[in-house]
Inverse folding.
């Protein structure tokens, strides 16, 4: 009846036909695929302990806080693991930073073998900060002969983490895996199963997450990690603005017009071809947006929130997440896995660092809005996780929840007593463990783990200022301070520089762009000198701020050690590298208070912030390290861990020769 | 009465829309109307359907299709997703039921108009047309039936079928394609309603007071006389249109081109179907 409805009916019957056809085909092919898989798969070396291994990653879940709460009768599900299985501290990597630690978790090797030493990797030729895990760019080629031809360019995204995640090894044994949001899995690698990339997935502006604030005038607040755009008043009921999106080929930003209308009690936001109703102080649902770049359409999703300040509206828009239903960049393996998830559960956050910590830091959103955002991301992840569990009766499921990390970063200052956000977060994570336990069968192994713990961050240390004060770094004449990227540093005299959350590099001749320190003896002496002096660094009150200094050669082994900072600084709890010096700034003070809302951290001496390990089966918990998790899981699935892996299987085995 | 009026208005509207195509081959008018109908119906679909719900459901269905693909080697999972897909599909059919009902009436009205205008060849001046008339209670005697025509010539013999209460005979149009048949003094219109391409071509008459006059404008509405027939029909050949190298019925042309325009409209106006 009619073309529209007629199409609907016709396609409906096609859908039913296809569904029946697919079912029959699958049933017919099943014995064949089973035989092929049986023939092709490698034999397991050991008898498997678990048919299904579930790894529940809780980023930043601190064993100390968990223990305190368990001792006071809270966290019943984690307590049951402690009583009947395993609960212990898990040694983290040096430094205990998520990209480093999760890379070691997935590969079973130290950073010297996977080449991730920090969030940022220094470009030693240009003294610039680059993302350590991903490289994006364009390759240009020419097609044709001589004058006849044309140039074309193709964008690329390359994962810089080296070595191999243990789930890729499972493919040889015919074991399927579902990997959800594990950090440093972008771009997704091929595996037997499905993978949704986590930390380091960029937004559509190519950043690690930049929000937008629309208001009548610039409030004067910092917009670090975000941008401000004007909301023009057309009349008292209508305000307009432009939402900037991805960069087009011509170097301009694609934009979408935005219109805010006050119609009686209703507040209507029209953005592109979408119309949504806003309520003051409440985060909207995900809104699908389409940016046009030439003839290409780029789809994004974002959430909006309206606040009123002195009668003027202000609209906050989250970072432009890649639309999981129409991803403009690969965020899952297979590509349609994200479409499957978005189709079944609706749009979800795809940005690596999805919780908008910068917006809260800059007071662009309130604490409540931030918490709403964080917990709704948690809910999305939970749905995917339990869907994965329901679909996997054998094999591996790994899911990492970031909410625990973000809430502790932003609310550590409020303490961990009852009804604080951190306390509530631990309770909720315990509920998640409880729900997982209720899904377990008798042949299942559950590993609950975190990459690091947490502690406070009340004082910043500007290592570049310290290097300057101690005659290792020099600024050009007339330059007092540097905001970022070492602009104004006199490299002809500088012998050491700091970039990233815990690293000091020497300005080595031949390695750095304008290096002056001779490699070898001179460099070694200089390193020892800096390390000795750093250990004596103290506050005005005489409190020492550095716990340990680790030369790269002592803590890393492997082919990529040369890419590591020459010294890794282990600060005491409460002290961390200052905000400016992380990206190559030189401030005016060496030690200064951290006034930001981001007041919890883990970028200290890694020995002070161990992670958590818990399991439903007994594991050898003494000196358990994050490097041991991959070998343990492989061993539980009956596979001998490859020799390049450095950790040990933590299973309490009688013998290792128990082959099938 | 009201149906007659609505039918007349609709005919008038279509006549006006088709005004520019009167001197062109019929196919152009048919294509134009098909195109307009597609756009009109997609607009009705958009206005009367819950676009948000349909969009969400379509995505879910696609998600379930991907679920089948992800688990193609596991029959149990495939069947589970196939079951969910069929259930989602049932929901989808329910969602489109309301717009479908809204579309049904204009669609049927247009269907009738197009069938009347483009469904059959108009009468040929040299080709005889068989006329069959049907009586209500009983067929009168032959000598009680007086058949004459205006602009048409009646060609005997008269064939009477008592059991069916039907009388058949042939006619030939004499001058042009408009004429009338007089039976016992009552006149019934024959041929086309106008001398242009796209005019309604009458295929019979009916005295019943029904919706037929609304949905079948090719059936002329006639007044029932005591000794007159209740209905009648004329043997006219169906018409075929040469489109894209094939010979298409008007319905095929309409369905294909209205669908194309509906898809284009859906794409243009971002309608989720």
């Amino acid at each position: 009846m009619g073309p529209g409805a007629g199409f609907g009916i016709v396609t409906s019957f096609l859908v039913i036909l296809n569904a029946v056809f697919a079912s029959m085909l699958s049933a017919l092919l099943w014995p064949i695929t089973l035989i092929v898989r049986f023939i092709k798969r490698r034999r397991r070396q050991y008898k498997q302990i678990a048919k299904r291994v579930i790894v529940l990653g809780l980023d930043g879940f601190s064993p100390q806080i968990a223990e305190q709460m368990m001792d006071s009768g809270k966290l019943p599900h984690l307590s049951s693991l402690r009583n009947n299985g395993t609960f212990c501290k898990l040694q983290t990597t040096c430094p205990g930073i998520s990209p480093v630690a999760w890379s070691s978790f997935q590969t079973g090797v130290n950073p010297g073998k996977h080449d991730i030493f920090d969030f940022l990797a220094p470009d030693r030729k240009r003294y610039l900060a680059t993302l350590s895990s991903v490289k994006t760019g364009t390759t240009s080629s020419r097609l044709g002969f001589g004058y006849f031809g044309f140039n074309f360019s193709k964008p690329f995204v390359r994962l810089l983490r080296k070595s191999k995640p243990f789930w890729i090894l499972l493919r040889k044994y015919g074991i399927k895996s579902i990997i959800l949001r594990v950090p440093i899995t972008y771009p997704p690698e091929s595996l037997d199963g499905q993978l949704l990339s986590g930390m380091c997935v960029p937004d559509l502006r190519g950043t690690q997450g930049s929000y937008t604030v629309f208001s009548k005038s610039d409030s004067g607040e910092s917009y670090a990690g975000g941008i401000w755009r004007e909301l023009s008043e057309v009349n008292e009921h209508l305000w307009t603005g432009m939402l900037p999106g991805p960069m087009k080929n011509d170097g301009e930003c694609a934009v979408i017009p935005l219109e805010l209308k006050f119609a009686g009690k209703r507040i209507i936001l029209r953005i592109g071809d979408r119309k949504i109703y806003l309520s003051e102080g409440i985060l909207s649902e995900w809104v699908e947006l389409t940016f046009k770049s030439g003839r290409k359409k780029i789809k994004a999703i974002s959430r909006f929130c309206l606040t009123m300040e002195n009668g003027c509206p202000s609209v906050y828009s989250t970072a432009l997440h890649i639309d999981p239903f129409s991803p403009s960049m690969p965020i899952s393996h297979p590509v349609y896995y994200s479409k499957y998830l978005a189709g079944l559960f609706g749009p979800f956050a795809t940005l690596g660092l999805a919780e908008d910590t910068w917006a809260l830091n800059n007071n662009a959103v309130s604490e409540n809005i931030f918490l709403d955002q964080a917990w709704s991301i948690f809910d999305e992840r939970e749905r995917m996780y339990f869907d994965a569990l329901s679909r996997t009766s054998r094999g591996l499921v790994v899911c990492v929840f970031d909410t625990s990390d973000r809430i502790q970063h932003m609310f550590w200052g409020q303490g961990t007593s009852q009804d604080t956000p951190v306390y509530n977060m631990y309770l909720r994570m315990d509920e998640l463990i409880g729900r997982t336990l209720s899904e377990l069968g008798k042949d299942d192994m559950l590993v609950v783990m975190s990459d690091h713990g947490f502690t406070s961050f009340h004082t910043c240390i500007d290592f570049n200022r310290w290097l300057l004060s101690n005659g290792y770094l020099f600024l050009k004449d007339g330059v007092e301070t540097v905001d970022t990227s070492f602009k104004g540093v006199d490299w002809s005299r500088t012998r050491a520089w700091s970039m990233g959350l815990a690293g000091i590099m020497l300005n080595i001749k031949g390695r750095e762009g304008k290096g002056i320190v001779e490699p070898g003896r001179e460099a070694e002496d200089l390193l020892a000198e800096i390390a000795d002096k750093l250990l004596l660094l103290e506050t005005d009150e005489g409190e020492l701020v550095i716990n340990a200094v680790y030369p790269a050669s002592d803590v890393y082994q492997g082919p990529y050690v040369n890419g590591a900072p020459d010294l890794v600084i282990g600060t005491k709890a409460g002290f961390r590298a200052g905000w400016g010096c992380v990206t190559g700034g030189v401030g005016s003070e060496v030690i200064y208070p951290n006034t930001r809302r981001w007041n919890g951290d883990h970028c200290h001496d890694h020995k002070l912030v161990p992670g958590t390990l818990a399991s439903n089966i007994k594991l050898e918990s003494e000196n358990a390290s994050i490097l041991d998790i991959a070998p343990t899981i492989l061993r539980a699935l009956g596979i001998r861990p490859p020799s390049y892996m450095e950790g040990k299987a933590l299973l309490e085995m009688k013998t290792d020769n128990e082959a099938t | 009465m009201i149906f007659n009026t609505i039918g007349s208005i609709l005919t008038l509207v279509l006549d006006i829309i088709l005004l520019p195509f009167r001197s062109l081959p019929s196919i152009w008018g048919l294509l134009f109307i098909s195109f307009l109908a597609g756009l009109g119906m997609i607009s009705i679909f958009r206005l009367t359907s819950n676009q948000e719900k349909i969009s969400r459901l379509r995505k879910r269905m696609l998600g379930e299709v991907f679920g089948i693909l992800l688990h193609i080697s596991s029959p149990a999972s495939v069947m589970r997703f196939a079951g969910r897909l069929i259930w989602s599909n049932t929901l989808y059919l329910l969602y489109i039921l309301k717009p479908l009902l809204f579309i049904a009436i204009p669609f049927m009205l247009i269907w009738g108009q197009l069938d009347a205008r483009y469904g059959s060849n108009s009468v040929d001046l040299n080709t005889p047309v068989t006329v069959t008339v049907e009586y209500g209670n009983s067929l009168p005697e032959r000598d009680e039936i007086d058949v004459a025509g205006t602009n048409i010539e009646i060609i005997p013999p008269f064939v009477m079928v008592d059991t069916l209460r039907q009388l058949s005979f042939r006619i030939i149009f004499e001058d042009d394609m408009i004429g009338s048949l007089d039976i016992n003094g009552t006149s019934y219109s024959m041929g086309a309603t106008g001398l242009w391409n796209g005019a309604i071509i009458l295929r019979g008459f009916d005295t019943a007071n029904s919706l037929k006059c609304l949905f079948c404008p090719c059936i002329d509405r006639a007044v029932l006389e005591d000794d007159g027939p209740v209905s009648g029909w004329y043997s006219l050949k169906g018409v075929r249109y040469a489109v894209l190298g094939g010979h298409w019925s008007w319905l095929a042309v309409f369905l294909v081109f209205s669908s194309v325009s509906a898809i284009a409209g859906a794409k243009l106006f971002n309608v989720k179907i």
